[in-house]
Amino acid sequence: MAWNEPGKDDKDPWKNKGGKNQGPPDLDDLLKDLSNKVGGIFGGKSSGGGSGKSFSSIGIGLILIVAVLVYVFSGFYTVKEAEKGIVLRFGQYAGTVEPGLRWKWTFIERIIPVDIQTTRDLPAAGFMLTQDENVVRVEMQIQYRVVDPRNYIFSVTNADDSLSQSLDSALRYVVGHARMDDILTSGREKVRQEVWTELEKIIEPYNLGLIIVDVNFKDARPPEEVKDAFDDAIAAQEDEVRFLREAEAYARGIEPRARGRVKRMEQEALAYKQQTVLDAEGEVARFEKLLPEYQAAPDVTRQRLYISSMEKVYSNTSKVMIDVEGGNNMIYLPLDKIMEQQSTVQRRMPQSATNTGNSTNTTNTAPSISGRSDRFNGGRN
Predict the structure, then answer these.
(1) Is the residue at 111 inside a domain?
(2) Which H, E and C letters describe the chain, residue by residue?
(3) Where a domain ends, among 172, 195, 222?
(4) pLDDT of res. 199
(5) 107: containing domain
(6) Residue 146 in this model has a pLDDT that exceeds 90
């Protein structure tokens, strides 16, 4: 049975409490009591008198000091060495700050750090249609860096995403205006440069605050269905390039030697020319010195020239012919045969015997020649 049924007053929780019959608490009395207590803490009337008022003033001061210290220390922040900070005051751009320890107005200013030194990578890849209506998969990667933090944050919604879309557009444009053979083989560098140029042209009006550091052409390959045929074609082109390099290397090796031979022949010709000129000048000088002698004594000079000429002629032969005056005989001395016979004997004999034989043969040969000479002289006399 409920406590509030008629005739059940003894079960009312607000009555008979503490032995007294009391009703529910008055809400106004509760609020008034709470207000008096709070007013006593903050300097109002309280049951404590003057000491309560002094305590409340000190408490308020301490709270204010702590709040100020917390606010001040909460405003310190650090900008890293590779970053620049963008200051927003009430959401509006208010400038940039350099790296280091800084302070800002908390709840008034906000700092957005932007890395301006790190080089970032952005890849791009996909199947694309070339100018000669072939499909090729191209992979490329760019490297970029932030140079203007304000434009990087505020010029577009997302600068990195805008750069990615611009790279894809530039790559497809360049590949669409190039032949597949050039993309796969010799035209890769040209494609890379054209993509770089086209990308800078696309992003320039948007002021993204970025700079393109490098563009890397990573890979280009045909679809798997025709990959083998294209591999053979590429191998043939590489062989062609290799043969050309080998031919150029051979030409570079042959040409210096040929030029060296030409230079040597030129030097020899110049030397021969100088020698001939000097010989002619020497003959002229000798003739000029000989002419006065000839004019003074023609017969004697003529005889001396004849003897000198004959001496030069016979000095180049190993045969000696002696004309004996007063007779009709001419003696022939085969000196070459004699010398050849002596060399044969020396080769056949031992070393010790050869040395002894040399002295013996020399001793034995000399008298025979001298004897013949005596005979010739005796016959001539």
Answers:
(1) yes
(2) CCCCCCCCHHHCCCCCECCECCCCCCHHHHHHHHHHHHHHHCCCCCCCCHHHHHHHHHHHHHHHHHHHHHHHHHCEEEECCCEEEEEEECCEEEEEECCEEEECCCCCEEEEEEECCCCEEEEEEEEEECCCCCEEEEEEEEEEEECCHHHHHHCCCCHHHHHHHHHHHHHHHHHHCCCHHHHHCCCHHHHHHHHHHHHHHHHHHHCCCEEEEEEEEEEEECCHHHHHHHHHHHHHHHHHHHHHHHHHHHHHHHHHHHHHHHHHHHHHHHHHHHHHHHHHHHHHHHHHHHHHHHHHCHHHHHHHHHHHHHHHHHCCCCEEEEECCCCCCEEEEEHHHHHHHHHHHHHHCCHHHHHHHHHHHHHHHHHHHHHHHHHHHHHHC
(3) 222
(4) 94
(5) 76-115
(6) yes
